[in-house]
Amino acid sequence: MTERSRRERELRRYETILDSLEDAVYAIDPDGRIAYVNERYAEMKGVDRETLVGTDIYDWVTDETAAKATRAREALANDDRDVGTVEYDFLTADGETFPVEMRFAQVSANGDTLDRVGVIRDVTERQQREDALRRKNERLDEFASIVSHDLRNPLNVAEGRLDLLQDDLADADVPPALSEHVAEIEHAHERMRVLIEDLLTLARTGDVVEETESVDIGALAEDAWRNVATAEASLRVATDRSVRADRGRLERLLENLFRNAIEHAGEDVAVTVGWLPNREGFFVGDDGPGIPADEREAVFESGYSTTTDGTGFGLRIVERIADGHGWAVNVTDGDRDSNATGARFEFTGVETCDS
User: Fold this and answer.
1) What does DSSP assign to residue 16?
2) CA-CA distance, 206 to 325, in Å (whole number)?
3) Can you say whether the dihedral through the CA atoms of 224, 267, 200, 130 is positive or negative?
4) Cβ–Cβ < 8 Å for 25, 40
5) Which parts of the sequence belong to the Histidine kinase domain (predicted)?
C-alpha cells in the first residue's frame, strides 16, 4: 500500500466517523470558504454537501449571525482560551431558523490550508425546556403574588372582625354553643394562615440553591426548635458538624420536621438531630410510632396527611428544600442510637465544612 493510498484510507475513516455524529461539523479555509461539512451539517442546512463546499460561509448565515460569529472570534483571539462558544439561530436553505450552539477553534495545518473548524449542536429541545421552566417560574411567581395578596387580605379582614366579635362577647352572657362556634372560626382562620404560608413556601423554595454558607446544624436546630410550639417535646442534638446550605431554607426544613414529629408522634415526642455515620449527611429522628414502609414515599406528596389538622404540604416542602440543595432525602426507622422505632428522615449528598 502506497503512502497516498494509506492517507486516502485514513481520510475516509475520519469522514465516516464525522458523518456518524449527531452534531454538525464544518471547516473553513483562510478565505472564508467552506472546505468541509459532514452529512449532519448538510442535513441541517437542507442541501447536499457539494452545494456547500467551496462557497462563502457568510452566504449561508444571517447578518446577525455573522456579526455574532465575528465578535466571538475576536474574543477568542484576545483570550487565552483554545475554544470559543456562541449561540445563534441556524439558517436553513428554506429560510427557516432554529437555535444552535457552536463550539469553534482556530487551526493551522498543512501550510494554513484551514482557518477554523467547528461543531454545531441543535439546542431546540434544550431551549424549549428552558422556556417551559421560565414560564413555570413565572406562573409560580404569579401564584405566590395571588396567595400573598388576594388570599391574605380577606383573611386579615375576617380575623379582624372576629377580634371585634370576641371583644363584644367578652362581658356578655354567651351560650356555650356560641363560644364553640367562635372557637371553631378562630381555629379555621389559623389553619388557613398556615396553609397560605405553606403554599407560599412551596412556590418559592423549588429553585436550585445558588448561594450557600457554613451552617452549624446543631445550633440551627436549636433555633428552629424555639420557633415551633413544642409543648412537652424534647430535642437532642447529637452533632457538631457544619454544612454548606442556605440558612433560611434549612431552618424551615428543620421546623417542618419538628412540627411533623409533634403532630404525628405526640406532644411529648423526643426528637434527635444527628450525623449519619460513614456518610455525608444528617438525620432528624423521633421516638414516635414511625411511618409504615408502604407509606414512606407517599408522605412527600402534596396534600398527603394522616391528621385532620395537617395541610399536607410540610414534608413536600422538606423534599423541595432538599432537592434545591442537591440532597437526597429518605425515610427510615427512628432514632437507631436509642433503639427507637419512630420516623427518621435521612439527608445525604450534603457538602460539609470545617467546624
Assistant:
1) H
2) 10
3) positive
4) yes
5) 146-348
DSSP letters for 229-260: --TT-EEEEE---EEEE-HHHHHHHHHHHHHH
Q: Which amino acid is at 24?
A: A
Q: At 102, is the secondary structure helix, strand, or coil?
A: strand
Mean predicted confidence (pLDDT) in 17-44: 88
Query: Residue 348, SS3?
Result: strand
Supply φ then ψ for residue 222, to 5 degrees: -65, -35
List, in order, residues 6 or more apart from 203 with CB less than 8 Å away. 140, 141, 143, 144, 147
Q: Which amino acid is at 105?
A: A
Joined together, the cell numbers standing for residue 197 give 404560608
- How would you classify residue 339: left for phi > 0, otherwise alpha for psi between -120 and 50, otherwise beta? left
Radius of gyration over alpha carbons of the chain, in Å?
31
Under a CB-based contact definition with an 8 Å cutoff, are residues 186 and 162 in contact? yes
Over the stretch 140-196, which tens digit does the pLDDT of each residue have? 777 677 666 677 778 888 888 888 888 888 777 778 788 888 888 887 887 777 777
Three cell numbers, residue 108: 493551522
Give the contacts of 144 (CB within 8 A, at least 6 positions apart).
200, 203, 204
Burial of 244 (0-12, 13-18, 19+ CB in 10 A): middle
Round to the nearest angstrom and report the end-to-end CA distance of the chain.
Answer: 68
Alpha-carbon distance 104 to 84, whole Å?
Answer: 5
Closest CA to 318 of 336, 338, 292, 345: 345
